[in-house]
């Protein structure tokens, strides 16, 4: 049975709202109080778990209004990215579970169909909501079902090509679709590009607002009179807009455009959405919000507070960090970039990840050589190709998970033409709390299949700098892959004998009675720790393509068996290629390949995720011992654990 709906004197509304059906029983006058309570509890919740803060605070009123007006989950709300869906989760039966947000067995930081019937479509990457909502709207029509589809997309996500492809298609189909543009002038960083300037003109031009005002009045009338007035006035109004050159881009694409309206005015939001709910065809409501609304620190610096670790709500939170003095891989890359000031041919490109990729300082010093292209991964790669074709040395700084959107451009526009583009690929491997949508599991498998593309997998800062230096010098495309987290300075061992040569990090005294472990990137340090008391020769491959077979083949031949360890997909991974090539070369030694299994690993701590894949220290030690017992049964070489 639903909880009692209180009168306006009750102090706690949120505790009585378990599902949106409860919310819809509230009188409209109480929604502002509910928004204050939801915002307060959201801050308290994220303070205990960490997560995305500023984006969620900015859409509290919009979230309440959408669930108040639409019959969810029958009506579909499709949230783009999911950075702003915490309030949505709290209103749809998951408020108590938010204490384990982004933790193992707790709610995801993004929307997931498997998590709730109210999560109509899974998210994680940006700019998918309009396509999905359009598909749902068409499906409803084809199946003669009465339900509405609403896409909620930010102005940052709207910079991606897929969003425009969907708008173009929706305008042609004239399907029953509502797009809510949440315009806070940001993605993670400040937005860039001509679209941002267009939205600014729509927000600020008094002529546009005056012309829109008539439309808002008509919407408020409703009923037959409003419909009649709307029919007669809209044509006149639109004619004047065209004459004055103040039409919106969305109207040119076939949408009815409404707004901009204040995204924190619940009365206006509810009234407008109720009227738009009764209309048909493609409609776009432009809502202006403030990222970080209601939390002073986040309002002042929404970039810094886009994502935070745990914090005391009474004290300004700090961005999530790996340790008080630890240098991260992103820090190490940024410091290398700082040493490139004199390289005037180096041009840096990123798809809306200036801060996340460690480019802010370089961008401040060299604004003419640092390009934030918005959430446009495909464009970023081909843009780099154009720069390279004219003799410059472009560097594309991108997360592994986002590079997945641009592999066609890597193949066709870069590798096929053998253009010298350097890819600095951050967040390779598992990323922990952000889960499967953000894991960088596939870059090695994808990349090794592409002719001309070289793959560097550094294990420490020294090798990272060496690989990046080489990447700026080679007349070929180079991908340098590195993870999230702490970056060791130098893991030691023998220096490589050639630029692409492997490194022996630790040599066994008697190879014939030992195991050869070939590791890549982050797994070098893990494997060194796991094999500390074992008869193991530890090899750092350094380059996944080309592979130093001149050094590797005799090592395989001289050891009792060999093991490959990589933090990437096992299917199609580097280990699969190594085993196939070794077999072709007649190296028939016992071999084991440890890599990420053929599943999407759930969110949790990074160590929990690694354990799921059998790639943490304890799992590696156990697998090494089992393998050693199998290949050297008489010697029983395992008598210690790390």
Automatic annotation (TrEMBL):
SUPFAM superfamilies: Thiamin diphosphate-binding fold (THDP-binding) (SSF52518), TK C-terminal domain-like (SSF52922). GO terms for molecular function: 1-deoxy-D-xylulose-5-phosphate synthase activity; magnesium ion binding; thiamine pyrophosphate binding. Pathway: Metabolic intermediate biosynthesis; 1-deoxy-D-xylulose 5-phosphate biosynthesis; 1-deoxy-D-xylulose 5-phosphate from D-glyceraldehyde 3-phosphate and pyruvate: step 1/1. Its EC number is 2.2.1.7. InterPro entries: Dxylulose-5-P_synthase, THDP-binding, Transketo_C/PFOR_II, Transketolase-like_Pyr-bd, Transketolase_BS, Transketolase_C, Transketolase_CS. Residues 327-489 form the Transketolase-like pyrimidine-binding domain. It is an enzyme of class 2 (transferase). Keywords: Isoprene biosynthesis, Magnesium, Metal-binding, Thiamine biosynthesis, Thiamine pyrophosphate, Transferase. Gene3D superfamilies: 3.40.50.920, 3.40.50.970. GO terms for biological process: isopentenyl diphosphate biosynthetic process, methylerythritol 4-phosphate pathway; terpenoid biosynthetic process; thiamine biosynthetic process. Its cofactor is Mg(2+); thiamine diphosphate. Homodimer. Belongs to the transketolase family. DXPS subfamily. This is 1-deoxy-D-xylulose-5-phosphate synthase. It comes from Halothiobacillus diazotrophicus. The gene is dxs.
């Amino acid at each position: 049975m639903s909880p009692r709906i209180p009168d306006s004197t009750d102090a706690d509304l949120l505790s009585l709202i378990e599902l949106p059906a409860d919310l819809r029983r509230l009188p409209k006058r109480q929604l502002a109080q509910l928004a204050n309570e939801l915002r307060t509890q959201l801050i308290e919740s994220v303070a205990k778990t960490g997560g995305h803060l500023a984006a969620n605070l900015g859409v509290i009123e919009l979230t309440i209004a959408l669930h108040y007006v639409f019959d969810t989950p029958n009506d579909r709300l499709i949230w783009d990215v999911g950075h702003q869906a915490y309030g949505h989760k709290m209103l749809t039966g998951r408020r108590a579970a938010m204490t384990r947000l982004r933790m193992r067995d707790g709610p995801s930081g993004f929307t997931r169909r498997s998590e709730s019937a109210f999560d109509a479509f899974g998210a994680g990457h940006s700019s998918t909501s309009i396509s999905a909502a359009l598909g749902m709207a068409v499906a409803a029509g084809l199946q003669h079902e009465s339900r509405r589809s609403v896409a909620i997309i930010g102005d940052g996500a709207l910079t991606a090509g897929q969003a425009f492809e969907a708008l173009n298609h929706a305008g042609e189909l004239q399907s029953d679709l509502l797009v809510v543009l949440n315009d806070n002038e940001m993605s993670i960083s400040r937005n860039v590009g001509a679209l941002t300037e267009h939205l600014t003109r729509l927000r600020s031009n008094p002529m546009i607002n005056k012309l829109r005002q008539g439309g808002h009045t008509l919407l408020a009338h409703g009923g037959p009179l409003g419909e009649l007035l709307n029919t007669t006035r809209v044509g006149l109004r639109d004619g004047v807009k065209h004459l004055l050159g103040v039409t919106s881009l969305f109207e040119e694409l076939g949408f009815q455009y409404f707004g901009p309206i204040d995204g924190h005015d619940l009365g206006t939001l509810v009234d407008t959405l109720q009227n738009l709910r009764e209309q048909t065809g493609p409609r776009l409501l432009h809502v202006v919000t403030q990222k970080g609304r209601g939390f002073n620190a986040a309002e002042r610096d929404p970039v810094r507070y886009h994502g935070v670790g745990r914090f005391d709500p009474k004290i300004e939170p700090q961005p999530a960090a790996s340790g008080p003095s630890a240098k991260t891989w992103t820090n190490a890359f940024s410091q290398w970039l700082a040493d490139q000031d004199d390289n005037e041919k180096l041009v840096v490109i990123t798809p809306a990840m200036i801060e996340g990729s460690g480019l802010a300082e370089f961008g401040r010093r060299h604004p003419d050589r640092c390009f934030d292209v918005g959430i446009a991964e495909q464009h970023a790669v081909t843009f780099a190709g154009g720069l390279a074709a004219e003799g410059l040395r472009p560097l594309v700084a991108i997360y592994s998970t986002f590079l997945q959107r641009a592999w066609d451009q890597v193949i066709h526009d870069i590798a096929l033409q053998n253009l010298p583009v350097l890819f600095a690929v951050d967040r390779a491997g598992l990323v922990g709390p952000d889960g499967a949508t953000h894991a960088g599991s596939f870059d090695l498998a994808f990349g090794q299949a592409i002719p001309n593309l070289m793959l560097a997998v550094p294990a420490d800062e020294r090798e990272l700098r060496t690989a990046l230096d080489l990447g700026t010098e080679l007349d070929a495309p180079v991908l340098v892959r590195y993870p999230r987290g702490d970056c060791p300075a130098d893991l030691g061992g023998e220096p490589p004998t050639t630029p692409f040569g492997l490194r022996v990090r630790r040599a066994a005294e008697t190879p014939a009675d030992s195991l050869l472990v070939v590791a890549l990137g982050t797994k070098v340090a893990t494997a060194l720790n796991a094999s500390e008391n074992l008869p193991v020769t530890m090899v750092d491959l350094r380059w996944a393509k080309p592979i130093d077979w001149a050094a590797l083949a005799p090592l395989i031949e001289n050891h009792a068996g060999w093991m490959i360890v990589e933090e990437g997909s096992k299917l199609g991974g580097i280990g699969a290629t190594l085993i196939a090539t070794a077999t072709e070369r007649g190296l028939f030694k016992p071999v084991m390949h440890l890599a990420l299994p053929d599943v999407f690993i759930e969110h949790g701590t990074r160590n929990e995720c690694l354990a799921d894949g059998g790639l943490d220290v304890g799992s590696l030690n156990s697998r090494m011992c089992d393998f050693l017992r199998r290949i050297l049964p008489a010697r029983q070489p395992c008598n210690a654990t790390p």
